[in-house]
Predict the 3D structure of the following.
Amino acid sequence: MMRAFVIAVYGFLYLPIALVVLFSFNAGRHASDFTGFSVQWYGRALSNTFLMEALTNSLIVATTSAALASLCGTAAAIGLGRAGPRTRAVFDALFGAAIVVPGVVIGIATLVALVQLFGIVNPAIAALWPGDAPPRLSLGYGSIIAAHGLFSTALVTMIVRARLGALGRDMVEASSDLYASPFTTFRSIVLPQILPAILAGFLLAFTFSFDDFIVAFFVAGSQTTLPMYVFASIRRGVTPEINAIGALVLVASILLVIAAQLLLRRRRPASA
Amino acid sequence: MSSAARKRLVTALLLAPAAVWLLLFLVLPFVAIVVFSLGERAPAGGYQPALTLAQYANLPARAAAFWNTLVLAPAGALACLLIAYPVAYYLAIKVLPQRRLLLVALIVIPFWTSLLIRTYAWMYILGGRGIPAFLELVGLPDVRLINTPGAVLLGIVYGYLPLMILPIYISLERLDRRLLEASADLGATPFSTFFSVTLRLSLPGMMTGFSLVLILLLGEYLIPTLLGGGKVFFIGNALVDLFLQSRNWPFGSAIAVALVGIAVVLLLAANRITARLSGARQVDLL
């Protein structure tokens, strides 16, 4: 009985996803008129310039925020391994908050803070700028990347720290016993072993940023990310074109997550 | 430079980028909304400096959003818990170890896939051209599924179930099987072993999952918007309205601070309860 229940739950989790993919190939407009196989909605979606622009924005934001988060998060994970208990407690609390605080709060808080900050910084730049057209800071790529990077840095730190914790100390000690410098030890012993975790962190951070709607909704300014575009189209009414975009987004994130899982689950290389 | 000072410097440099990020995009924004929540709305919208608790006194104006959230979020979290437990139990105890990795991965995957698209899928299924259209074919016209509290609850369970299953699974997987054998050897029925050993030891996982899901639900916006259709609105909807439409930033900030306050109280309560009931340490997230 329990087995049947578990199978039903897996069905519940995957059936709606499968339906979106299935109906994205429906020639008809609605679920209730399945009139045959067609890829016309994919064609429509891919030739929609607004959609393609939103997709490009999302790719830029997700790649940049995930890359920055991988660097900062890995450095923080290594740093926390060396830091004292008080420093660690402070960082733990802040990273915990970055993960647990709902996106809607992160979004509005970042919006409020940045608008205030720009209100102070922009006049200052204008006063100091020698030319006629001083640059103005405004909401856009930068603010989305910054806000996504917060969650992602916390995420990468958590994943890399778990890996560092599982790392054998014996090889590190052997390396320094053999007079390797700390940097050499890091590069040739530690880094190769935590690299899968860093990559997995990057992929998950990318997926988070690529799929996020609510944070970007507040801090995007005049930019539009793919989820923002999809949300706006859904509000205008369900169309099969959304099924096609949705199917592509679902498949892309599923592949990324599978890759991250494989990287995290990979057995540690057999000790030489 | 002494080697201890040098080690400290390197540690500080390693932590610096993350510290800047946390300071600029977590601490500073939070201070900003607290300051804003004590201010007044400028005539044209936005913020005007002041030092007043008027925004907080005005919170009952959005009582409906708080009420909906504080009813449907715990109900949704509870529904997730009831469905998640048997699944986590099955994965941790019943399934063959070699199949476990794949089955757990299949739980993780939906969690990381676009909540927007997954919620949209239910819009498609529950909407007028979905299930109701099929019900009409079999002679059940005018069934309304979307834009109801039930639809929102369904969306919540669908969206957050993986996040509930994982921590419970982790706590059950770490459970020492010898305890179960010992309990059986001492003559306990499977039923009483489950209640006095298994359930108790998985309590930290249940509390982690429950409080995590509940807190994220408090800020949920997409699910009530897409499946509640403006009829079932959450605190998240009030925030979007106040910040992006009516531009009453101080009042919106007060609501956001109240939301964080509720979340903190819930977390502390959950930790207290876990500590009291199990005496065990907290289970790590994910």
